[in-house]
Specification:
heterodimer; A: mainly beta; three-stranded antiparallel beta sheet; B: mainly beta; seven-stranded mixed beta sheet; 11 strands; globular
Chain lengths: 111, 126
């Protein structure tokens, strides 16, 4: 099964909001409320920032929010800060055969 | 907070077996599902599989139960060592396409990854 589709890059200025989409199918994103999002800095351990589509782990800023409509999930980062510049990946449960799919990743640049 | 650290050879020859270990600290290895995830250079993440202790694990609880990416299943073996709080990955018959940063990760519930290691680069080359 193919990876989930994300834009390769997005950019925004400090203080702005951006959204990153994650498009799957009715077999994965659209069928389960199990989309998660990860923030990765080069050379660092990835960090879980959204789980079950909309929930934030303890300690994650409320500037990060998740949503879902049909086969597409989205990550929104509000009040952009320079420290948000990183790579972001979505992930979804994809059923009992494929199990887990990741997105292709999106590089966020803060201008 | 769970902490994870990957270890293993950074260079493996083609056709040989890639072997990695993840050492867990901060909690018991019996409380989570333990995954391996990789990222080839310039590409996205790929889930390899996971190992965990379950009620259906056989008489040797350290062997663990597993789930695996169907595309890698024929080459992947995973196990747990509860005495050392470690889990391991073996990937057989490697090729250059297996060159990647390999991460280990912990799942408390369902199918997301709460904690990750920093990753270790494994290069397949003669």
């Amino acid at each position: 099964q193919s990876a989930l589709t994300q834009p390769a890059s997005v950019s925004g200025s400090p203080g702005q909001s951006i959204s990153i989409s994650c498009t799957g199918t009715s077999s994965d994103v659209g069928n389960y409320n199990l989309v998660s999002w990860y923030q990765i800095y080069p050379g660092k351990a990835p960090k879980l920032i959204i789980y079950e589509g909309t929930k934030r782990p303890s300690g994650i800023s409320n500037r990060f929010s998740g949503s879902q409509s049909g086969n597409t999930a989205s990550l929104t980062i509000s009040s952009l800060q320079a420290e948000d510049e990183a790579n972001y990946y979505c992930c979804s449960y994809a059923g009992s055969h494929t199990l887990v799919l990741f997105g292709e990743g999106t590089k966020l640049t803060v201008l | 907070q769970v902490q994870l650290q990957e270890s293993g050879p950074g260079l493996v020859k083609p056709s040989e077996t890639l072997s990695l270990t993840c050492t867990v600290s901060g909690d018991s290895i019996s409380r989570y599902y333990w995954s391996w995830i990789r990222q080839p250079a310039g590409k996205g993440l790929e889930w390899i599989g996971r190992v965990y202790i379950s009620e259906t694990t056989d008489d040797n609880p350290s062997s663990g139960s597993t789930n695996c990416n169907p595309s890698l299943k024929s080459r992947v073996t995973m196990s747990l060592d509860t005495s050392k709080n470690q889990f391991s990955l073996n990937l057989t018959s490697v090729t250059a396409a297996d060159t990647a940063v390999y991460y280990c990760a912990a799942t408390a519930l369902y199918w997301y990854f709460d904690f990750w290691g920093r990753g270790t680069l494994v290069t397949v080359s003669a």
